[in-house]
Design goal:
The structure holds 2 protein chains of 2 kinds. Chain A is of the alpha/beta class. Chain A has helices at 2-16, 36-55, 75-87, 98-111, 140-154, 171-174, 177-187, 205-212, 225-237, 255-259, 280-288, 296-318, 323-330; strands spanning 23-29, 64-70, 92-94, 115-116, 133-134, 162-167, 190-196, 218-221, 243-246, 267-270, 357-364, 367-375. In chain A, the strands form 2 sheets. In chain A, strands 7-6-8-9-10-11-12 form a 7-stranded mixed sheet, sandwiched between helices. In chain A, strands 2-1-3-4-5 form a 5-stranded parallel sheet, with helices on both faces. In chain A, helix 5 (140-154) packs parallel to helix 7. The longest helix of chain A is centred in the C-terminal third of the chain and has 23 residues, at 296-318. Chain A starts with a helix and ends in a 10-residue tail after the last strand. By secondary structure, chain B is mainly alpha-helical. Chain B has 16 helices and 4 strands. Chain B has helices spanning 13-16, 23-42, 45-70, 78-94, 99-118, 126-146, 148-151, 172-193, 197-207, 209-214, 219-245, 255-268, 273-300, 302-308, 312-326, 330-344, and strands at 157-158, 163-164, 167-168, 247-248. In chain B, the strands form 2 sheets. Chain B has a two-stranded antiparallel ribbon with strand order 1-4. In chain B, strands 2-3 form a two-stranded antiparallel ribbon. The longest helix of chain B has 28 residues, at 273-300. Chain B starts with 12 loop residues before the first helix and ends in a 5-residue tail after the last helix. Classes of the chains: A alpha/beta, B mainly alpha.
């Protein structure tokens, strides 16, 4: 105990010693918790962009100082981390999951700290409810709608395509379902089933068996990459021929490691480029990482930091950089191109959806492959739903 | 040189059972409270927020200790009972109820729910009861997520900061005093319950249920009371949490929360009020300390911190195991030993 105290004192002394005139930005990461496998590359992407920016002029000559805290996907620790950030005087924050981002909505609104989260819940896009929340990728519901849109476009049969949903029974899993059901009906899908598959499932046979009778053509999987892999493998075992389409967190470069051949031909929806997709930003990432392939989560973290820093630059050009001025600057951002790494980003004072563009990817030859970017209309009635 | 009596000498039972048995204890308590009251003026908002989290955890841990430590009824659903109180208080407060009424209402709802899930305790003991309270956890989590018209479902529920007589507790320092007052009342309540017939009945049930029944303790009634009281306090902790964070979602009251409360009372010391307080402090501070350590090491040796970060969870687990092996009676015993050491210092006879 005494040693722990001593170490703490040392730690405090060390943190006090590193004060500088930089713009401080909090980086709330999950490096050790339930989502650490995707949280780590995402955080690396953010850090890589900020490091590059600081070497290349920073925000009008001032560097950005990231304060990273690992909160292990625990809401209480996220709250404490946020308080640590504010007491150190951050002007903006890079957040992470749904639970912690929601728990902080009111705090960041009160303290006027713009937050870029990697939780793409639709209600975080509505400034009436979450005035200081931003994201660099479209919300879960928009992703689902874009996926449906693409599938309907490519559907050639004369009969209505049959659609089923598989998702974990938690806030993240259930959030986009009503929006997707509504849009699917509008597009003329026939909804034939809904099944819950836990994020930690090691077997999805019972759920798939009950869906098999309904013979769906397309199945939505909104979980994590491991849970999607389980579903795909079991579907292959059962000889099902349906096509799976999975949301931003339900499939990534690891899908082939986990599902092997069973993943081939299915679709994944992404908010940022896949490593190797040609663009100016990708050349930069290649240079930074010395050609080491990165997950798409890394690219998305990179984009998230880039959009935030662009907002800071705009705020700096207009005057002082504060949380309030960054928010105001971001809300005037129109079609900002994150070096071709993601669809262009615009924010409005009454609409924080960055865009309604979703990258449709397919799994082929052991790799993620970009198919096309589906762009939906920015409909008012979809905001927050 | 004046002479002091060695040890304490009681002439009445009431004195022996007193909360503070010596003037020195009263003085220490007074000083401790004075320091606590002064703290928000001396430290930054980060430290105050940690204190707030600790105080809320203290209520949760003390209430679980009443049920598990004192009455011997194992509960794996305490996090969900905290959640019931959080949602109850939030819904009442959003409907326009004043803060105190919402807090008590949330506690009352939680007490009722707790008693319902306590009914199996008449037939189930030990690990079997633990599993049935685990069921309570799962059922309640399901309700939080799916009763969307009440709880906001996946979108969560926003809450306004507490207001009493027009005074808004909307900063960390302000709400600290509110939480401190409620925590002090809760701790006092549990301490007092342990000194009444109820408390003794709880302990009797824990130690051996048949003997307890033989001496006239109505097992069912007392077990239910333990569940009710414990859940009420858990609900109060939840009400404070929801008004402090101002936004609640089902994820905040998951299994993990229940486990961390259990860890608090195990590390602190089963059946001891002061132990639960130590446990709450320890479990809340540990991740913060580890984070500070890692970030400071990152400044000195970045390569080292990359290795240490993934070990954080391991360190947490290791701490628990080491505690169970070397101090099974928890921090409370350590505290007693330390006190005894200094009382007799320098002549340990």
């Amino acid at each position: 105990m005494k040693k722990l105290l001593l170490l703490t004192v040392l730690a405090l002394a060390a943190t006090v010693g590193t004060a500088s005139a930089a713009y401080k930005v909090g980086l709330l990461s999950d490096l050790t918790g339930a989502t650490s496998s995707v949280g780590t590359p995402y955080a690396e992407g953010i850090k890589a962009y900020v490091a590059w920016l600081n070497e290349n002029g920073g925000i009008g000559g001032e560097p950005v100082e990231l304060i990273q805290v690992d909160y292990a996907y625990n809401v209480q620790q996220a709250l404490a981390a946020y308080k640590r950030f504010t007491s150190e005087g951050i002007v903006a924050m890079q957040g992470w999951g749904t639970g912690d981002t929601e728990a902080l909505v009111k705090f960041v609104a009160k303290d006027k700290i713009p937050v870029f989260s990697a939780s793409y819940s639709a209600h975080l896009m509505d400034p009436a409810k979450a005035p200081y929340n931003f994201t660099a990728a479209a919300d879960y519901s928009t992703m689902g709608r874009a996926g449906l849109n693409y599938l309907r476009e490519t559907w050639k049969d004369s009969r209505a395509p049959k659609l089923a949903f598989m998702f974990p029974d938690n806030p993240y899993g259930t959030a986009p379902i009503p929006a997707m059901e509504e849009y699917a009906k509008e597009l003329g899908f026939e909804i034939v089933g809904k099944e819950n598959v836990d994020l930690k499932a090691i077997d999805a046979t019972p759920q798939l068996l009950s869906l098999k009778k309904a013979e769906p053509d397309f199945v939505w999987t909104g979980g994590t990459t491991p849970s999607t892999a389980v579903i795909m493998k079991d579907a292959q075992k059962l000889g099902m021929t349906c096509t799976f389409f999975s949301n931003i967190w339900s499939s990534d470069e690891n899908i082939f490691k986990l599902a092997g051949d069973a993943a081939t031909g299915h679709f994944g929806l992404q908010g940022a480029a896949i490593y190797g997709q040609p663009s100016a930003g990708m050349d930069l990432i290649r240079k930074i990482t010395k050609g080491e392939p990165q997950m798409t989560h890394y690219v998305r973290g990179f984009v998230s930091a880039m959009v935030m820093c662009e907002g800071m630059k705009m705020a700096k050009a207009a005057g002082e950089v504060t949380g309030e001025s960054i928010k105001a600057a971001l809300e005037t951002m129109r079609d900002f191109d994150p070096m071709g790494l993601a669809p262009a980003v615009s924010y409005f004072p009454d609409d924080h959806r960055p865009n309604l563009s979703v990258n449709i990817c397919t799994f082929k030859d052991g790799k993620l492959e970009f198919v096309k970017t589906t762009v939906l209309e920015r409909k008012k009635e979809w905001l927050g739903l | 040189m004046s002479m002091h009596k060695c040890g304490l000498f009681y002439t009445t039972y009431a004195a022996e059972d007193g909360l503070f048995r010596s003037r020195f204890q009263k003085l220490c308590m007074g000083l401790f409270l004075a320091v606590l009251l002064a703290v928000p003026q001396l430290v930054d908002s980060y430290a105050v927020s940690i204190l707030n989290l600790i105080l809320i955890a203290v209520i949760g841990a003390v209430s679980l200790n009443l049920l598990t430590g004192m009455c011997g009824q194992m509960s794996l659903g305490h996090g969900a009972f905290v959640g019931v109180g959080a949602y109850g208080a939030a819904i009442l407060s959003n409907a326009g109820a004043p803060f105190v009424a919402a807090l008590l209402g949330g506690g009352a709802i939680s007490a009722m729910v707790g008693m319902v899930f306590g009914i199996p305790s008449l037939r189930l003991k030990g690990i079997y009861l633990a599993i049935s309270t685990l069921a309570a956890q799962l059922i309640l989590e399901y309700v939080f997520l799916h009763a969307s018209s009440l709880t906001g479902g996946a979108n969560g529920l926003p809450v306004s900061p507490p207001q009493i007589l027009g005074f808004a507790f909307d900063t960390d320092a302000r709400i600290f005093y509110l939480i401190l007052a409620v925590t002090a009342l809760c701790v006092l309540a549990v301490t007092n319950v342990s000194r009444t017939r109820h408390g003794r009945a709880f302990v009797a049930i824990r130690d051996y249920h048949q003997s307890a029944e033989n001496v006239g303790v109505n097992l069912f009634a007392y077990k239910l009371q333990a569940f009710g009281l414990s859940s009420f306090l858990a609900g109060v902790a939840g009400g404070l949490w929801s008004h402090y964070t101002m936004y609640i979602t089902p994820e905040q009251f998951s299994m993990g929360l229940s486990i961390s409360y259990l860890a608090m009372i195990i590390i602190g010391g089963m059946g001891s009020v002061i132990g639960s307080i130590f446990g709450a402090v320890f479990i809340t501070l540990l991740p913060e300390m580890l984070n500070l350590l890692v970030s400071s090491l990152g400044g000195i040796a970045p390569d080292l911190s990359a290795v240490i970060v993934p070990m954080k969870e391991g360190v947490f687990g290791l701490m628990l195991v080491l505690f169970l092996i070397f101090e099974p009676e928890g921090l409370a015993r350590k505290w007693r030993l330390t006190k005894a050491y200094w009382k007799l210092y320098p002549f340990a006879y």
